[in-house]
Design a protein that fits this description.
By secondary structure, the chain is an alpha/beta fold. It has helices at about 55-65, 80-90, 100-115; strands at about 5-10, 25-35, 40-45, 50, 55, 70-75, 90-95. The protein has one domain (about 5-120): Nucleotidyltransferase, domain 5, CATH 3.30.420.130.
Length: about 120
């Protein structure tokens, strides 16, 4: 693939970023390239972090493990604890309510402009 980023998107329909991180039952995984083009790789199902008004710490650890090859997550919203755990694990967090195609292009432009390098980029040798 060359240089790029793997992104996990919280979505219910694969078109719009419309899911809160804690309620997500799946993440759509995309690879984006420096030119902003992207490719859908897979849908990863997870156990939601938030259930019955409680947070499941084990679910958070499981989700973090399932997304460990990603440079970032795109979500409509995320709580501070989950954000902190992801960032500690080298996964950047972006809150954005937008079409996935538009958001991935915007993210690629931001990463190029800021020379963003994640330790996750090692996946693209």
């Amino acid at each position: 693939m060359g240089m790029g980023w793997r992104i996990a998107v919280a979505t219910t329909d694969g078109k719009v970023i419309n899911e809160h991180f804690g309620r997500a039952r799946a993440f759509y995984i995309f690879d984006i390239k420096l030119d902003g083009t992207h490719e859908f790789l897979e849908k990863r199902t997870v156990t939601p972090l938030c259930r019955d008004w409680n947070h499941d710490d084990n679910a958070l650890l499981d989700i973090t493990e399932r997304l460990k090859d990603c440079s970032a997550v795109l979500v409509s919203k995320i709580g501070p604890s989950a954000m902190r755990i992801l960032e500690i694990n080298g996964i950047a967090v972006f809150e954005e309510a937008n079409y996935i195609d538009d958001a991935l292009g915007k993210m690629a432009r931001y990463f190029v402009k800021t020379n963003y390098i994640s330790r996750r980029n090692e996946n693209y040798g």
